[in-house]
Amino acid sequence: MDAFTTHTGTAVPLRRSNVDTDQIIPAEYLKRITRTGFEDGLFIAWRTNEPDFVLNQPQYAAASILVAGPDFGTGSSREHANWALLDGGFRVVISSRFADIFRNNSTKAGLLTVVLPQEQVEALWAAVEADPATPVTVDLQAKQVTYGATTVPFEIDDYVRWRLLEGLDDVGLTERNLADVEAFEAGRPAWLPRALPVLEG
Amino acid sequence: MPKTLAEKVYEAHVVRSTAGEPDLLYIDLHLVHEVTSPQAFDGLRAAGRTVRRPDLTMATEDHNVPTLDILSPIADPVSRAQIEALRRNAAEFGIRLAPMGDRDQGIVHVIGPQLGLTQPGMTIVCGDSHTSTHGAFGALAFGIGTSEVEHVLATQTLPQYKPRQMAVTVDGELPPGVSAKDIILAVIAQIGTNGAQGHVIEYRGSAIEALSMEARMTICNMSIEAGAKAGLIAPDRTTFDFLQGRPHAPQGADWDAAVEYWSTLRTDEGTVFDREVVLDATTLTPFVTWGTNPGQGLPIAGAVPDPADFADEGERRDVEQALAYMGLEPGTPLREIEVDTVFLGSCTNGRIEDLRVAAELLRGKRIDADTRMLVVPGSVGVKAQAEAEGLDRVFLDAGAEWRGAGCSMCLGMNPDQLKPGERSASTSNRNFQGRQGKGGRTHLVSPSVAAATALTGRLTAPADLENAGV
Fold first, then answer.
1. Beta pairing, strands B14-16 & B23-26
2. Coiled-coil ranges per the record (chain A) (predicted)?
3. Which of B354, B343, B350, B425 is nearest to B107 (CA)?
């Protein structure tokens, strides 16, 4: 995964709550077996059916920071939602509340999710609606979002932040502790199930 | 210090715990399907890694599979390619696969319990958010993304933080015609689609204890629709009776040792949960959703809400958008909403008990002439059991379609989809926009409401049938 330190770009105001994974990318776009190319399904229903949908507006076409209403990413565990946002040019999603699996997947895929209080989200919406060209900087090192004269701090788990800053691969980190895994396995009860076929007869 | 059931299961699986890092949690069972795994296997190949414990990993084909002509090649080339990728990966990495046509094939969350692979006290993951289903057995079971699928394949562990603890207590006896689905829809309507975010929910109380394993699975299944990390229920005699004799359940002395351990898996007296929600089962009625998220539900006696009644601007906008999408007018009684399609199936309500409840209402009757009903068993095993009981005949004689096993119209990755503007009463778990097909409109219901609705062509509770003269 690519490291994330700081990002400056323009932001798009998505004034909707409960943006579920099926809106981010519907199931029919999950059939691809590669890890890239998912931008074609990103918000496809809204992009197709709503001519004035915010992502159809030219002033937001180049935005790389998505500012959404509360409970973004509810629903499915599909990491394709995170990939679609990355493939669609987004590096950051800001919301007052995320669904757990979406947020966790973001930390694996290298998409930064930033939780801000709803009043800060509203203020950012107002700013980028007033001037869509407003540069917004999301600094993971300093844990703050800056636009115009406004700077807003955000909280993020220290370990997650370190991994994102370094762009580290979880599997590689876990493999350093394989001895602990082996020791644990030695103590598992023998009656625990194995998925091997059971012969009957 | 007293502990919750979920804390006990979590702590029994901590491989490594270090300050400033997530815990490393051991995973007892990893279930795999075709949609969320191909990129994970590619990741293993690219790094030259193997599957650490193929014997704790099981794969099946469910999301893409057609429910007609299942022995012919899949017509959709993209779906077929995804299924073929899973077959290649399972063969290359030595993982057991239940492919289409296999007697063990089915929705991943139906076959785990059916085979006895799902047992109390285990940690279970799958690249699917409805993995919470397995919590019905007192397992800690949760959905993961594809990067985590790769991590579990490679290491049989996951970095995790201990979730917060939430109790949902449901006491009292459920009225006739009210089911587990109505309980969980009522819970979600009360706490919201992300109200349990960061928490594991333990469902407890006399109404939960009285439920069958199938009903408990329905409740735990939709924990994710309340935003929970997982949902679980303490194992008891009902759990043990369900498991005994299943292909992967322990036998003989192992069974006794397992039951002894499983019997310790209860929340200690005096444990304080981070959050508690209480429901009175005696006041519940059949629940249906009217909107585009599972929290937008009401008792069937209610009416479509009016956006003007919502003080919060964001909420009002949500309701307006939902009603516009659903094509509903405020104030319309829910019982007057006409549907085109009834879908009975999914990992929420595609088990044998769900089919029995629906068949009982349909026996000797004909469904509404303008309504189609799809009955999709959750697995080949459920299908065979239903056919042995003659339920397939009941559905067919009533005018319903009897299909092969799979996820089907729950998410329409196969040909079973709503057309734009079509409306369904569906026993599945998500009424998101377009979930069952582009432009499709979904009302989530229980199996008995689904069957009653099929008979009248509009949202109907089983108790309404007598009044309707059906």
1. antiparallel
2. none
3. B350
For the question of whether the overall pTM of this predicted structure is more than 0.95, the answer is: yes
Inter-chain contact A181–B117, Cβ cutoff 8 Å? no
Q: Which residue has the tokens 């491989």?
A: B15
Binding site members of B: 347, 407, 410
Q: Provide the percentage of residues in chain B whose pLDDT is more than 90.
A: 97
Q: What is the pLDDT of residue A201?
A: 42
CATH code, residues B332-467: 3.30.499.10
Work out the widest C-alpha separation in chain B, in whole angstroms: 66
Give phi and psi for B104, each to the nearest 5.
Answer: -95, 0
Q: Which tokens sit at A132?
A: 């869509």
Whether pLDDT at B219 is above 60 = yes
pLDDT (tens digit, 9 = 90+) per residue, B328-356? 999 999 999 999 999 999 999 999 999 99
Measure the CA–CA gap between B341 and B450, rounded to whole angstroms: 10
Q: What is the CA radius of gyration of chain B?
A: 22
Contacts of B21 (CB under 8 A, 6+ apart): A159, B159
What is the CATH topology of the domain spanning B5-264?
Answer: Aconitase; domain 3 (3.30.499)
Q: What share of chain B is helix, strand, coil (3-state, %, to 5)?
A: 40, 20, 45
Considering only residues 124 to 143 of chain A, which have any Cβ-Cβ distance to chain B shorter than 8 Å?
none
- d(C-alpha B61, C-alpha A30), whole Å: 14
Average pLDDT per consecutive 10 residues, chain A (201 residues; last block may be shorter): 93 96 97 95 97 97 97 97 98 98 96 98 98 98 98 97 93 96 97 84 42
Residue of B194, B200, B224, B254 to mutate, testing the A interface (most A Cβ within 10 Å of its Cβ): B194
> Edge-to-edge, what's the strand order for the sheet holding B14-16?
B14-16, B23-26, B157-160
Predicted complex ipTM exceeds 0.95: yes
Break chain A into its structural domains and give their ranges.
6-187
CATH architecture of A6-187: Alpha-Beta Barrel (3.20)
Interchain CB distance below 8 Å, A33 and B29 = no
Mean pLDDT, residues B255-271: 98
**How many interface pairs between A and B have CB atoms less than 8 angstroms apart?**
206
* Three-class secondary structure assignment of B173-186: CCCCCCCHHHHHHH
- Please list the alpha-helical segments (H only) found in B33-179: 38-47, 77-93, 108-115, 146-155
For tokens 């958010």, the residue is B129
Name the phi and psi angles at B469, rounded to 5.
Answer: 70, 25
Contact B464, B381 (CB under 8 A): no
